[in-house]
Amino acid sequence: MQRLRKDPPARRHPVEDPVLPTLRTLRAAPGTGPQGGRKNLRARLTDERGGSAVLIALLLVPLLGFTAIAVDIGALYAEKARLQTAADAAALAVAADCARGACGDMQATAQSMVDANTGSADAAPPVLATNPNRVTVSGQTPKEHWFAPVIGHDATTVSATATVAWGGPSGGTAVLPLAFSWCEFEQQTGGGLPSGTTEHTVYLTKSSETVDCTGPSENVVPGGFGYLVSDPGDCRATSAVAERSYSSTGNTPPSSCSAGDFASWVGRTVLLPIFDRFGDTGSNAWYRVYGYAAFRLTGYHLGGQFSSTSRPCGGSERCVTGYFTRFVDLGHAFDYDSDAPQLGAWVLRLIR
């Protein structure tokens, strides 16, 4: 039997990593050691400096453009707001003059108000219109830019327009719950608009000495003394032209009023309703509002705690002192209407 013979195992040859010769070559190459690598890196960075400068130069234009948007447009909005304030003031000033019946030199008035608020803008000639009565004032000024000239925009013209309308009071809230009769107003003003500052004593209807201003009982309405029912919790009275306001009974102001409510208005002008018709009695008594007149209050005596320092009347008499005057109201307590009766008071409203 023939014995099988085993061949000796084949000799294994080590397999060399293909990367190693490359590493050996790199290590052996002059200038490729650690020091050489740093030099090559510096060289590459030096070569790229020129490219970075070009990139920054290209980005600089849009960066300046965004800066112009942020700074210059913000400045435009600020200038626009300032010019709008000037236009508003100019329109209100011209409208106030026209409402009083003498527009005067509208251009000079408008320009003076614009100059006072901006100092460098030009006001266009004011434009008057009717239905409703109104005036429009426009102004403009060039605004130089800080950064926008880089992209070709040196300046922008900023403009603003304001329109103010006016008319007689047609309804609103009087700061005192008082009402005067038409004949009181007519006899003090001669049936026209107020024109003087002579102080008068106006007696409320119970004690009025004005000829033909009261009925046989010396009251316009029995139980009425010229006080109006006040708004809930307030010493004010809301009313409207051609509508009825109801009488507050008693010979002193409504219970919602305090002495301070009246004292705070001494020396000031208030709008009060003027009535031309009346009816009924007691708590049902009413006054029909004809219009509103401006009254400069200088004193009063209404009984009890309701008396000014210097009493214009005494005893059971009830009176106020002052004079009807011309007045322009810039507030929002009253509405206006071009067709409302004109008794010397005007309401101005900024309507843009």
As for the number of domains, it is 2
Order of helices and strands: HHHEEEEEHEEEEHEEEEEE
Helicity level, as a percent range? 25-40%
The total count of helices amounts to 5
The largest pleated sheet is described as: 8 strands, mixed
Structural class, by secondary structure, is: alpha+beta
Strand content: 25-35%
Q: Count every beta strand, where a strand is a DSSP E run of 2 or more residues.
A: 15
Low-confidence stretches: none
Measure the end-to-end span.
127 Å
Shape annotation: elongated
Which radius of gyration do the C-alpha atoms yield? 43 Å
What's the average pLDDT? 83
Summed up:
The chain has 352 residues and is an alpha+beta fold.
Give the helix/strand layout.
Blueprint: H1 19-28, H2 34-99, H3 106-117, E1 122-123, E2 127-129, E3 133-144, E4 155-174, E5 180-181, H4 182-189, E6 200-203, E7 224-228, E8 237-240, E9 244-249, H5 259-263, E10 268-279, E11 286-301, E12 319-325, E13 327-329, E14 334-337, E15 345-350
Parallel strand pairs: 5-10, 13-15
Antiparallel strand pairs: 1-3, 2-3, 3-4, 4-8, 4-14, 4-15, 6-12, 7-9, 9-11, 10-11, 11-12
Helix pairs in contact: 2-3
Question: Which terms summarize this structure?
Answer:
transmembrane helix; alpha+beta; 2 domains; elongated; Tad_N; transmembrane; 352 residues; Flp pilus assembly protein TadG; 5 helices; membrane; eight-stranded mixed sheet; seven-stranded mixed sheet
